[in-house]
Q: What sequence folds into this?
């Protein structure tokens, strides 16, 4: 398993990247952590003529605070997300999820932006950042634009990002008040993709759930935001019956494909069960339990 | 219990010591010498064009575009090999196998053409340029459909042949029928028995999957006419013989070297098309040709294991005493019968299927069939088909226990062969050498507080929780084997050891076996150390080089200790016999007047009159009296009088998530009796490793195919190898019942944990559902598969 | 698509190598520099046999291009021992029988080396999680865990 030939570019600035992208168009691929792209190139499922490595652009890395918003550079690695005090304090959902991605070596290289931009419904960060209410910042020849996570994923391996754009950062609002979150993932083993996983972030106002976002991994063509489940919980005192109702909505939203992880029924049921567990855990955390 | 390994003090660090391994120094410093590490000057690289379909005719192959690619040196097809009669090769099972597709392909990823290029990247480029046109044919993936009336014929080359290597063929896709036991007596017992049970039990197709894939470097010297092949082989001597037979090169000019091997587990017993093509390539090009499998190729094309569809029946009395066992097996061997079994045993040693139990009559029938899957049928960390047999009987014991409402541990105890019955001849003809099953079982039950566990299980069940307790007891038949039963390609399954004691008292010993991680450099040295009184540190062990090592059949089927280890002990005793004569001459006494003590001969009654082995070694190379030849060395070719029969009692406790189906091994206790224990530390390590492979098989491993014959699990994403996170803590324990016929009483241990472990884990998972009337569930017990049972039973509501 | 000249420090020694952009780092280490201690076990970044220390982090060198290592500081198994004195991780592996066939061992030890830098006193669970990117087919991991514990104790006593 050896990649086909390509030309390698290691630009030092976003401007250089954009100029390379406009020069080579569809013949080019950008390289982030490489743990999706390089295996595909080794199996020759992907044969770009030009590979543009983003790893030398320091501006794309790091986690900072901009008022009530956490700004995560697209090339920030999963390991950096796990280690971030800022995220631990203001958006613990992301580090919790990152710990469940692949294995230590892969997390050292794998980036949040790469995980999102690949458009693979099996990747974890799409659903996680949706639940975290994230907005993605894209930059292209026409400048910068923002796309909300809920509107970014258009199909399997198909996103709202244009071929001449790159993702520069992910903006996540700091969780405020009595909030709790959880990412619960069922997988066959370390390093596997989810059979099904659910990301939940909610806020309590007294006993009531004042806001909640729920998203699912690997049970459809894209990560799935489950608005009906959110509606079922919003403004309510959440009890087991409501959790069941939300899980039912999650199952209704699923459209998984059968593979060795399970058939449609199993994956759907597991999406429901993961949702149930993620809601329960988020509630417990929001209550400080 | 006895964890970690016990320590004993021994001046020579011999048998019984948990001494550190001698081979570690190179491995921990990155100086191991594996096949792909080898870099001979001028080496070129081979890679296969493989079939994308599972069954079809090859209409045309156009290799011109590949040949025109810069850096490509040759493209071989069956047409190129045919003039050399190398487009097909014989298998170890008496069948033949295509080296390169000869007009058709019979499984996905079958070898179609072999590209040789200056560089491995260029070879990868070039295989994409070879244009092959196929005409697809219908496929058979489920072996149970192979003998249907309308089944497509897989092996056109055998058309009209009603006789195979093992007798009559009753269908175009039939390979052999093998019957063992007394059918009539068995049927009669079933007719009259008050209790009968039956179950369909499949053992899925799996792959041994060592971390290092298969590969070789072939180097032909045109001037001397010598062929040197470095390769990942568990049996280098057998490969040398096969290569000589295939190529016509005198065996004395074929030099096979198995360097360090990154795990074998049965995967590296066979002779593969890659080896043949690399050899032909090196002869044609006059340059060393390297071929290294990718992981996909390894999982898809070399050496599957199991794929046995078994139907078991037990007849018993009301007390659960077994009267008869009847077994029918459909064995799926893939597209070519390349099973690595002793010649006379098309179903290996499956007739150990009566297990650890005193069963008056039994009958087993195995039908082998072809399917559109890769050839292989190797013993994945077990002796030939022993794990299938052991799994069958250990599952059936639970089925019987369930029917009678008797505890699974109790039903086993009621049927065990008793200690006083050894040596015991089973109704299927094997002579069990030694055993004490009741003691082992009782020690195991006590160690885990079995009664307490059953009590806890009852409480858990009352709460709706799923907890399973798996009981398994196994008896293996290993150490193939006596030449009266066992040969491969006509060569008796002996093994060998040559020992040379140098003048200064250090030793080099060479053996016909080949370690793949078992620690032979250490354990063989320990055996010789104890026999000769020379510190094991001063004993160098060499294996794997056919030019220097005496002929042996290699390492698989737990045969190294039973056969190679015995050869080492007996060669050492020959050396010692000569040393006695030299010592007697040195002290001018009769050899009969000498006693041996640790490292020296002492004159009887005169303790200050002695000669150490070191002194004797020096004397052996000096002037010796008439009738004594100089030198201190010996060679032993050992033909074991019998197999050895290691056994063990395993207990496994699992908790099952009733919403997701996930199985968690909470506790696993393994008691092994492998006879005399040479190095307890190494034994414990073998048990840990084998249990982890058992876990993988029981809970996840399967080579899966879709209905078109596409393999679905040919990477580590989908072929389950547990990491440290999925692997539990293993508890080990032992009893010692030496083998009466082995020179040091040892029986072999490497494969026991796989054989016993799979049954224990699978029994535990199924036991979790026993209260719901479940008697059997098919492996692997993945979360998905377990959940389906949960869902059907409505336990998750 | 010609070769690119890269410079990297491996085990304290600086090397300049001309590599094709598509060459994987593992091949550069094994084939160009002759450092065959790191192995290839799966090619899909699951097994970790190719793990090396790359600018202070464990990475799988089969999923990294050599050109990406331009300017990098790399440690492989061959660089673990210091002047012939074994590193405590190496000592632990042999003392606790943490290896059998030895194929995963270099990657496993290099990973353990970094794990102990990041977490000098790991629990058994942290060790198991920490080495979960490295597959071993022989040992069942139990003695590898003991080997890492041995090394941790030895390192903290130093």
A:
């Amino acid at each position: 398993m050896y990649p086909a030939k390509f030309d390698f570019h290691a630009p030092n600035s976003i401007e250089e990247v954009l100029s390379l992208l406009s020069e080579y168009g569809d013949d080019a691929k950008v390289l982030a952590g490489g743990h999706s792209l390089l295996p595909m190139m080794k199996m020759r499922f992907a044969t770009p003529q030009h590979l543009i490595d983003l790893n030398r652009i320091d501006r794309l890395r790091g986690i900072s605070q901009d008022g009530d918003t956490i700004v995560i550079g697209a090339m920030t690695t999963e390991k950096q997300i796990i280690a971030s005090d800022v995220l631990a304090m203001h958006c613990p959902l992301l580090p919790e999820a990152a710990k469940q991605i692949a294995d230590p070596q892969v997390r050292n290289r794998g980036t949040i932006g790469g995980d999102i931009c690949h458009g693979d419904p099996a990747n974890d960060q799409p659903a996680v950042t949706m639940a975290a209410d994230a907005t993605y910042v894209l930059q292209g020849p026409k400048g910068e634009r923002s796309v909300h996570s809920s509107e970014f994923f258009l199909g399997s391996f198909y996103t709202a990002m244009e071929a001449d754009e790159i993702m520069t950062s992910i903006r996540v609002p700091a969780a405020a008040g009595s909030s709790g979150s959880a990412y619960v993932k069922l997988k066959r083993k370390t390093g596997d993709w989810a059979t099904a996983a659910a990301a939940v972030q909610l806020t309590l106002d007294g006993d009531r759930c004042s806001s909640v976002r729920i998203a699912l991994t690997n049970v459809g063509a894209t990560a799935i935001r489950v608005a009906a489940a959110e509606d079922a919980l919003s403004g309510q005192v959440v009890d087991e019956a409501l959790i069941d109702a939300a899980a039912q909505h999650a199952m209704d939203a699923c459209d998984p494909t059968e593979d060795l992880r399970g058939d449609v029924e199993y994956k759907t049921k597991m999406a429901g069960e993961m949702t149930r567990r993620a809601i329960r855990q988020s509630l417990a955390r929001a209550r400080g339990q | 219990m006895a964890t970690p390994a016990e320590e004993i003090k021994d001046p020579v660090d011999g048998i019984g010591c948990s001494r550190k391994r001698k081979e570690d120094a190179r491995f921990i410093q990155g100086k191991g010498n594996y096949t792909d590490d080898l870099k001979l000057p001028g080496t070129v690289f081979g890679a296969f064009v493989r079939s994308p379909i599972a069954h079809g005719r090859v209409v045309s192959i156009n290799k011109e575009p590949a040949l025109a690619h810069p850096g490509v040196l040759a493209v071989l097809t069956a047409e190129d090999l045919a003039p050399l009669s190398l487009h097909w090769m014989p298998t170890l099972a008496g069948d033949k196998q295509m080296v390169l597709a000869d007009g058709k392909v019979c499984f996905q990823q079958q070898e179609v053409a072999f590209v040789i290029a200056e560089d491995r990247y260029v070879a990868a480029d070039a295989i994409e340029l070879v244009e092959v046109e196929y005409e697809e044919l219908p496929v058979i993936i489920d072996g149970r459909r192979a003998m249907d009336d309308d089944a497509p014929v897989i092996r056109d080359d055998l058309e009209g042949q009603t006789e195979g290597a093992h007798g009559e063929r009753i269908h175009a896709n039939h390979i052999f029928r093998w019957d063992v036991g007394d059918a009539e007596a068995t049927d009669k017992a079933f007719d009259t028995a008050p209790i009968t049970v039956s179950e369909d039990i499949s053992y899925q197709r799996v792959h041994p999957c060592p971390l290092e894939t298969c590969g070789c470097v072939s180097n032909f010297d045109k001037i001397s006419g010598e062929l040197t092949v470095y390769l990942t082989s568990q049996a280098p001597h057998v490969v040398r013989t096969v290569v000589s037979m295939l190529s016509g090169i005198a065996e004395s000019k074929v030099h096979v070297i198995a360097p360090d091997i990154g795990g074998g587990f049965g995967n590296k017993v066979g002779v593969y098309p890659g080896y043949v093509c690399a050899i032909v390539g090196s002869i044609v090009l006059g340059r060393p040709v390297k071929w290294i499998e990718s992981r996909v190729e390894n999982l898809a094309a070399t050496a599957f294991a199991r794929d046995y569809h078994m139907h078991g029946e037990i007849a018993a009395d009301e007390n659960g005493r077994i009267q008869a066992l009847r077994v029918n097996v459909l064995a799926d061997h893939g597209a070519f019968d390349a099973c690595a079994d002793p010649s006379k045993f098309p179903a290996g040693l499956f007739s150990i299927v009566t297990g650890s139990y005193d069963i008056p009559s039994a009958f087993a029938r195995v039908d082998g069939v072809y399917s559109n899957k890769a050839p292989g049928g190797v013993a994945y960390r077990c002796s030939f088909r022993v794990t299938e047999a052991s799994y069958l009987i250990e599952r059936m014991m639970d089925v019987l226990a369930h029917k009678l409402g008797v505890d699974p541990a109790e039903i086993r105890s009621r049927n065990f062969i008793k200690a006083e019955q050894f040596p015991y001849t089973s109704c299927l003809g094997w002579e069990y050498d030694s055993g004490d099953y009741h003691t082992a079982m009782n020690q195991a039950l006590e160690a885990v507080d079995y009664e307490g566990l059953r009590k806890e299980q009852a409480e858990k069940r009352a709460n709706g929780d799923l907890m399973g307790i798996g009981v398994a007891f196994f008896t293996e038949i290993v150490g193939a084997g006596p030449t009266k039963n066992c040969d491969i390609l006509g060569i008796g399954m002996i093994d060998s050891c040559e020992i040379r004691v140098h003048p200064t008292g250090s030793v080099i010993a060479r053996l016909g076996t080949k370690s793949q991680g078992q620690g032979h450099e250490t354990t063989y040295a320990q055996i010789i150390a104890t026999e000769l009184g020379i510190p094991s540190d001063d004993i160098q062990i060499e294996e794997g080089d056919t030019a220097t090592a005496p002929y042996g059949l290699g390492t698989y089927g737990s045969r190294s200790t039973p056969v190679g280890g015995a050869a080492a002990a007996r060669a050492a005793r020959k050396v010692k016999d000569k040393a006695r004569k030299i010592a007697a001459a040195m002290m001018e006494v009769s050899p009969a007047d000498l006693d041996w003590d640790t490292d020296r001969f002492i004159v009887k009654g005169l303790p200050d009159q002695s000669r150490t082995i070191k002194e004797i070694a020096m004397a052996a190379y000096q002037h010796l009296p008439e009738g004594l030849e100089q030198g201190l060395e010996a060679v032993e070719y050992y033909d074991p009088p019998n197999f050895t029969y290691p056994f063990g009692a395993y207990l496994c406790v699992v908790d099952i998530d009733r919403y997701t189906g996930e199985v968690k091994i909470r506790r696993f206790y393994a008691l092994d009796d492998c006879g005399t224990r040479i190095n307890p530390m190494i034994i414990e390590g073998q048990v840990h490793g084998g249990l982890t492979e058992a876990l993988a098989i029981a809970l996840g491993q399967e080579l899966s195919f879709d209905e078109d014959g596409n393999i679905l699990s040919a990477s580590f994403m989908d072929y389950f190898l547990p990491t440290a996170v999925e692997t539990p803590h293993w508890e080990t324990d032992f009893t010692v019942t030496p083998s009466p016929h082995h020179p040091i009483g040892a029986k072999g241990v490497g494969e026991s944990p796989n054989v016993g472990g799979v049954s224990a884990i699978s029994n535990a998972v199924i036991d979790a559902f026993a209260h719901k009337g479940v008697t059997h569930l098919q492996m692997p017990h993945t979360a998905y598969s377990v959940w389906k049972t949960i869902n059907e039973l409505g336990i998750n509501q | 698509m010609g070769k690119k000249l890269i410079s990297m420090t491996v085990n304290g020694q600086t090397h300049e190598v001309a590599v094709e952009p598509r060459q994987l780092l593992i091949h550069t280490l094994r084939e160009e520099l002759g450092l065959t201690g790191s192995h290839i076990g799966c090619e899909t970044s699951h097994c970790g046999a190719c793990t090396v220390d790359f600018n202070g982090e464990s990475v799988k060198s089969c999923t990294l291009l050599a050109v990406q290592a331009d300017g990098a500081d790399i440690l492989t198994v061959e660089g673990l021992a210091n002047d012939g004195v074994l590193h405590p991780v190496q000592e632990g592996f042999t003392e606790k029988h943490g290896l059998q066939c030895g194929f995963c061992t270099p990657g496993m030890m290099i990973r353990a080396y970094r794990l102990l830098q990041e977490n000098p006193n790991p629990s058994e669970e942290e060790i198991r999680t920490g080495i979960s990117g490295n597959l071993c087919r022989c040992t069942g991991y139990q003695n590898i865990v003991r080997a890492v514990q041995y090394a941790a104790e030895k390192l903290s006593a130093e």
Remarks:
- The domain at 495-638 of chain B is CATH 3.30.365.10 (Aldehyde Oxidoreductase; domain 4).
